[in-house]
Design goal:
single chain, alpha+beta, two-stranded antiparallel ribbon, 42% helix, binds zinc ion
Length: 130
Protein backbone atom coordinates (compact mmCIF):
# COMPACT_ATOMS: atom_id res chain seq x y z
CA UNK A 1 0.00 0.00 0.00
CA UNK A 2 1.32 3.46 -0.87
CA UNK A 3 1.89 6.07 1.79
CA UNK A 4 -0.79 8.29 0.22
CA UNK A 5 -3.30 5.44 0.39
CA UNK A 6 -2.44 4.67 4.00
CA UNK A 7 -3.02 8.32 4.89
CA UNK A 8 -6.37 8.33 3.10
CA UNK A 9 -7.44 5.16 4.88
CA UNK A 10 -6.57 6.79 8.21
CA UNK A 11 -8.91 9.76 7.65
CA UNK A 12 -12.07 8.18 9.15
CA UNK A 13 -10.20 7.56 12.40
CA UNK A 14 -8.66 11.03 12.36
CA UNK A 15 -11.96 12.82 11.70
CA UNK A 16 -14.73 10.84 13.43
CA UNK A 17 -17.11 13.80 13.02
CA UNK A 18 -16.89 13.44 9.25
CA UNK A 19 -17.09 9.65 9.26
CA UNK A 20 -19.52 8.78 12.09
CA UNK A 21 -19.94 5.23 10.80
CA UNK A 22 -16.25 4.62 10.18
CA UNK A 23 -14.70 3.96 6.75
CA UNK A 24 -16.83 4.77 3.69
CA UNK A 25 -18.23 1.59 2.07
CA UNK A 26 -16.38 1.95 -1.24
CA UNK A 27 -13.24 3.51 0.18
CA UNK A 28 -11.75 6.50 -1.56
CA UNK A 29 -12.23 5.68 -5.23
CA UNK A 30 -9.56 8.06 -6.51
CA UNK A 31 -5.90 7.63 -7.37
CA UNK A 32 -3.18 8.62 -4.93
CA UNK A 33 -2.40 12.01 -6.53
CA UNK A 34 -5.48 13.51 -4.92
CA UNK A 35 -4.63 12.20 -1.47
CA UNK A 36 -3.27 15.49 -0.20
CA UNK A 37 -6.25 17.38 -1.63
CA UNK A 38 -8.71 15.10 0.18
CA UNK A 39 -6.75 15.29 3.44
CA UNK A 40 -6.78 19.09 3.23
CA UNK A 41 -10.51 19.10 2.52
CA UNK A 42 -11.26 16.86 5.52
CA UNK A 43 -9.16 19.08 7.79
CA UNK A 44 -11.06 22.13 6.53
CA UNK A 45 -14.48 20.51 7.03
CA UNK A 46 -13.50 19.45 10.54
CA UNK A 47 -12.44 23.02 11.34
CA UNK A 48 -15.78 24.35 10.09
CA UNK A 49 -17.62 21.85 12.30
CA UNK A 50 -15.62 22.93 15.34
CA UNK A 51 -17.32 26.32 15.04
CA UNK A 52 -20.74 24.64 14.77
CA UNK A 53 -21.01 22.32 17.79
CA UNK A 54 -24.47 20.92 17.00
CA UNK A 55 -23.83 20.24 13.33
CA UNK A 56 -22.57 17.00 11.86
CA UNK A 57 -21.79 15.65 8.45
CA UNK A 58 -21.38 12.20 7.05
CA UNK A 59 -19.09 11.56 4.13
CA UNK A 60 -20.93 9.09 1.89
CA UNK A 61 -18.76 8.62 -1.17
CA UNK A 62 -15.53 9.99 -2.58
CA UNK A 63 -14.73 9.29 -6.19
CA UNK A 64 -13.54 10.61 -9.53
CA UNK A 65 -16.08 11.51 -12.18
CA UNK A 66 -15.45 13.31 -15.47
CA UNK A 67 -11.86 13.91 -14.38
CA UNK A 68 -12.79 15.76 -11.19
CA UNK A 69 -13.23 14.95 -7.53
CA UNK A 70 -16.76 14.13 -6.38
CA UNK A 71 -17.23 14.33 -2.64
CA UNK A 72 -20.70 13.27 -1.51
CA UNK A 73 -21.84 13.97 2.02
CA UNK A 74 -24.93 14.68 4.05
CA UNK A 75 -25.29 17.51 6.57
CA UNK A 76 -27.33 17.46 9.76
CA UNK A 77 -28.39 20.26 12.10
CA UNK A 78 -26.22 22.87 10.38
CA UNK A 79 -27.33 26.48 10.05
CA UNK A 80 -27.21 28.20 6.67
CA UNK A 81 -23.79 29.76 7.11
CA UNK A 82 -22.24 26.46 8.22
CA UNK A 83 -23.84 24.61 5.35
CA UNK A 84 -22.58 27.24 2.93
CA UNK A 85 -19.04 27.07 4.34
CA UNK A 86 -19.03 23.28 3.98
CA UNK A 87 -20.30 23.48 0.42
CA UNK A 88 -17.72 26.11 -0.51
CA UNK A 89 -14.89 23.95 0.84
CA UNK A 90 -16.09 20.93 -1.15
CA UNK A 91 -16.60 23.00 -4.32
CA UNK A 92 -13.13 24.49 -4.01
CA UNK A 93 -11.54 21.04 -3.70
CA UNK A 94 -13.56 19.79 -6.68
CA UNK A 95 -12.37 22.72 -8.79
CA UNK A 96 -8.78 22.28 -7.62
CA UNK A 97 -8.88 18.58 -8.57
CA UNK A 98 -9.19 19.57 -12.24
CA UNK A 99 -5.68 21.05 -11.95
CA UNK A 100 -3.96 18.23 -10.05
CA UNK A 101 -2.79 15.01 -11.66
CA UNK A 102 -4.86 12.23 -10.10
CA UNK A 103 -1.91 9.84 -10.29
CA UNK A 104 1.08 11.85 -9.03
CA UNK A 105 -0.35 15.08 -7.58
CA UNK A 106 1.65 17.40 -9.84
CA UNK A 107 -0.02 20.35 -11.62
CA UNK A 108 -2.09 19.13 -14.53
CA UNK A 109 -5.16 20.00 -16.56
CA UNK A 110 -8.47 18.33 -17.15
CA UNK A 111 -8.54 16.88 -20.65
CA UNK A 112 -11.03 14.93 -22.68
CA UNK A 113 -10.16 12.15 -25.05
CA UNK A 114 -13.07 10.80 -27.08
CA UNK A 115 -15.44 11.97 -24.36
CA UNK A 116 -13.33 10.37 -21.65
CA UNK A 117 -12.42 13.00 -19.09
CA UNK A 118 -9.39 12.73 -16.88
CA UNK A 119 -6.90 14.90 -15.04
CA UNK A 120 -3.63 13.08 -15.60
CA UNK A 121 -0.35 14.80 -16.48
CA UNK A 122 1.49 13.90 -19.71
CA UNK A 123 4.20 11.95 -17.83
CA UNK A 124 1.67 9.72 -16.08
CA UNK A 125 -0.37 9.40 -19.24
CA UNK A 126 2.58 8.06 -21.23
CA UNK A 127 3.56 5.79 -18.33
CA UNK A 128 0.11 4.17 -18.57
CA UNK A 129 0.07 3.68 -22.31
CA UNK A 130 3.53 2.14 -22.37
ZN1 LIG B 1 1.08 12.76 -13.07
Amino acid sequence: MSEARARLDALPATYPRLFPKGPVPWGFAVSDGWGHLIETLCARLDTILQDAPGASIEVIQVKEKFGALRFYYSVHHADDSTEQALRQAVDLAARASAHICERCGRPSELTSNDGWYSTVCPACRSATSR
